[in-house]
Design a protein that fits this description.
about 220 residues; alpha/beta; Rossmann fold; six-stranded parallel beta sheet; 10 helices; 6 strands; about 45% helix
């Protein structure tokens, strides 16, 4: 029996940082010393971020993002200071727009919800306060000292709700961190396919939705 929900935050409840990352990457590409596109810069940035996030000891998301951006800028020969670009990135993350359907979903859902986010706690709190969002529990990466898909993130969320893995659904937009992460923790995963992408073969997806409104008939 379904007794609770675990929700990713960025890309699921609010919009992700795609637009600002694309804009920053375009600026880096435009001033790079070798030919490179903005899309390639985004790919390199994501690659380097994953490297930084997996390093030990744990570091906040802001630190991982700045280090990875600086590494990519050096790699493509962009001499600009990464710090102002990085700050613009994270200021946008503190004031994201709600995703379509979020307010309607939250107004109608009755199950307890725990947000499970890789965002730093201060940025997460700022974004929730902006939209006056409250949840039964919130688990941020800084609380755990790990990032999704680490099983510890999901274990903390289950403990926060006092529920077992088979009593919840985890809902998120990342196949790697949300879907596979939840599946590895024994939790059924709902994929928020916000870009209308082709469903990956063999991904352990229980349900696929475009926004949270489509979850309502599933959990009723």
């Amino acid at each position: 029996m379904l007794k609770g929900l675990l929700l990713d935050f960025y890309g699921t409840i609010v919009e992700d940082d795609d637009a600002v990352m694309d804009a920053i990457a375009a600026e880096v590409a435009a001033t790079a010393s070798r030919p490179v596109s903005g899309r390639e810069v985004v790919g390199l940035w994501d690659r380097e971020y994953q490297v930084e996030a997996e390093r030990q000891p744990f570091r906040p998301l802001r630190d991982c993002a700045l280090t990875s951006l600086a590494t990519v800028m050096a790699e493509v020969g962009c001499a600009a200071d990464p710090a102002p670009l990085h700050e613009r990135h994270f200021q946008t993350g503190r004031s994201p727009a709600l995703r379509p359907g979020t307010r309607e979903f939250l107004d109608r859902v009755t199950l307890p919800i725990c947000v499970v986010s890789d965002a730093d706690r201060d940025d997460l709190d700022a974004a929730m306060a902006l939209h006056r969002l409250t949840f039964d529990a919130v688990v941020a990466s800084e609380d755990v000292g790990a990032y999704k898909p680490d099983r510890a993130m999901f274990a903390h969320a289950l403990d926060a709700l006092g529920l077992a893995a088979d009593e919840v659904l985890h809902v998120g937009d990342s196949i790697t961190t949300d879907v596979h992460g939840a599946h590895a923790a024994g939790i059924r995963a709902v994929w928020v396919n916000r870009r209308g992408e082709t469903t990956p073969a063999n991904a352990p997806i229980t349900h696929e939705i475009a926004d949270l409104r489509e979850l309502l008939p599933i959990i009723d």
